[in-house]
Amino acid sequence: MVSALARREQVAFATARGLSERRACALLSVARSALHYKPKLAARDAPVLAAMSILSAQYPRYGYRRIQIFLERQGHCMSTDRAWRLWKLGGLQVPRKRPRRRVSVHRPCPVPAANAQHVWAYDFVFDACVNGQQLKCLTVVDEFTRECLAIDVAGSIRSGRVIEVLSQLISEHGAPRYLWSDNGPEFVSRALLKWASQNGMEMALSDLGKPWQKRRR
Q1: Is residue 45 part of a domain?
Q2: Are β-strands 134-142 and 119-128 bridged in parallel, bridged antiparallel, or unpaired?
Q3: 20 to 30 A Cα–Cα from 79, which one of 115, 127, 129, 161?
Q4: 73, 195 Cβ separation under 8 angstroms
Q5: Alpha helices in the chain (DSSP H)
């Protein structure tokens, strides 16, 4: 099936060869009212696509669904289908394997904690029972006071449980400016990213392959 744009181009070609516009439109099934139509979609998508490209460079390991959360925070509300269309239009993709020398240096990292409630660092530590059962411990530390705010212990802790623990801490201490972690799957999930965005917190991640960075602060 020939697209509407291609048919309009054929009408222009026919009229350039001497055929009347009315006759060319009738032969090619093109409405004369749509002959001089100029699409507005590209102009509407341009600022969103530019913002998406910047965020993709800033977060090279995030796909279009996570980038969509950041776009909504900037005021660009859209459906998942539109986000996917713009993602493909911009030729954006998550690299399958990224050499260390190409790791982006523009990842958002918080300045050293200036006061309490400025930066919270959280990570997992592991232990085991006498019977060999593995224990997973979620630890949350205030980087300025070095106070351990929480240690949550369970056999398995996923992003939903991480959100519950952080929500409880925020209700007791208030929300920090930054949440500092490595790139573990529980810390970069869409659910946690969206929750942090809704509560006005920035997600600061250590560089890929350098999980020790957060321990130096």
Answers
A1: yes
A2: antiparallel
A3: 161
A4: no
A5: 4-16, 21-28, 41-58, 64-73, 80-89, 159-173, 190-198
Residue linked to tokens 């509560």: 199
| pLDDT tens per residue across span 30-58 | 888 888 777 788 889 999 999 999 999 88
CA distances from residue 132 to 123, 124, 127, 137, 155 in whole angstroms, order as listed? 22, 18, 9, 15, 12
* DSSP symbol at 119: E
If residue 120 lies in a helix (H) or strand (E), which one and from where to where?
A: strand 119-128
Burial bucket for residue 45 (CB in 10 Å: 0-12, 13-18, 19+) = middle
Q: For residue 217, give both structure tokens.
A: 């602060």
- Report whether 67 contacts 59 (CB < 8 A): yes
Q: Is the pTM of this model over 0.85?
A: no
Residue 192: Cβ-neighbour burial (10 angstroms; 0-12, 13-18, 19+):
buried
Query: Which pairing describes strands 178-181 and 202-205: parallel, antiparallel, or unpaired?
Result: parallel
Residue 8 near residue 38 (C-beta atoms within 8 A): no
Same domain, 127 and 199: yes
